[in-house]
Amino acid sequence: MRVSFLGLGAIGTPMAVHLATPPFELVVWNRTMTKADAFATEHGCSYAANPREAAAHAEVLITCLTSSREVEALMDGPDGIVAGLKAGALLVDCTSGDPATSIVIAGKLKALGVRFVDAPVSGGVKGAVAGTLTVMCGGDSRDVDRARVVLGAFGKKILHCGGVGAGDAVKAMNQALLAIHIWSAGEALATLAQLGVTAEVALDVINGSSGRSNTSENLFPERVVGRKFPRTFKLALLDKDIAIAAQISRDNNVRTPLIDLAARLMKEAHAELGEEADHVEAVRVIEDRSGVIIV
Ligand code: NDP
User: Fold this and answer.
1) Which CATH superfamily is domain 169-290 in?
2) Residue 93 phi/psi, 5° resolution?
3) CATH T-level fold of 2-163
4) Whose CA is nearest to atom 31 of ligand 1?
5) pLDDT at position 259, please?
6) Binding site membership of 7 for ligand 1 (Cβ less than 6 Å)
7) What residues does each domain of the chain span?
8) Quick check: CB of 184 below 6 Å from ligand 1?
9) Any ligand 1 atom below 6 A from CB of 8
10) Is the CB of 233 under 6 A from ligand 1?
11) HSE, side-chain direction, 13 A CA sphere, residue 204
12) What distance in Å separates the CA atoms of residue 26 and residue 234, rounded to the nearest whole number?
């Protein structure tokens, strides 16, 4: 199957690795061309000079960019995706996108006989390397079934959530929960540190109790207690994701004061820590504001 992959970022790269072997014939493209060149050399596939060339190769085209805005921006122009795609092709967007833009993109492609599935992923860089990502899909069931062949290369759990945009919506809400878990666990552990309870003891209790989460079980022990903060998923992206969640709630007249507050806190943390900070580093802002280190 001829597959093209656009977006060799932190998670796109390990996802694309799974497509670099038969039955897939892979072509990659990345804005920073040196990354595509290096990937093609290392994994024995080809790279395209522009999105049009990548799209022209593809029966299935996968995008994994920062946001839907970047995906939409690659559509048009003489070297854009639309100029290359053939009728009958399928675009699978693994970006954590926003439903409204995905619906616009799907509509534009439909007029050209091209199908669209939004298919954001969860499981982090580790899950992408292991090929165990969870993939949440939005689109027609026949298109989602077609996408499964490719998504199964890096995904373990592939779920059809609804029509176009439903995958984006589920992903955004998952990210809202992640942001809330990080911030609330940070506040709880900062308070306990001030009382003289170590983070190790506090997490031992919480992880045997009803307050536990993936954040307390996996993220905090490695990153906060270990003071390592590896940069695997940018805080800037979590800020983007929870802003999408808040927007979806507003668009659907659902009052979500907690999501709105967490979105504001993530925006502030992003502004304070900059573009390269990892999402778990948001706890540094809690520490700074309280003058306490979680140890
Ligand atoms: P990165 O910031 O590491 O990579 C972003 C990718 O998008 C790069 O390939 C970058 O190209 C490309 N890009 C950015 N702007 C443009 C543009 N204007 N035109 C063309 N290409 C562009 O992000 P991640 O790989 O971490 O994330 C990608 C998506 O996956 C995001 O939507 C994110 O929310 C989601 N995600 C990430 C996870 C993670 O653990 N990292 C987990 C789950 C989902 P270049 O190399 O030139 O900068």
Assistant:
1) N-(1-d-carboxylethyl)-l-norvaline Dehydrogenase; domain 2 (1.10.1040.10)
2) -95, 105
3) Rossmann fold (3.40.50)
4) 66
5) 98
6) yes
7) 2-163, 169-290
8) no
9) yes
10) yes
11) 5
12) 27
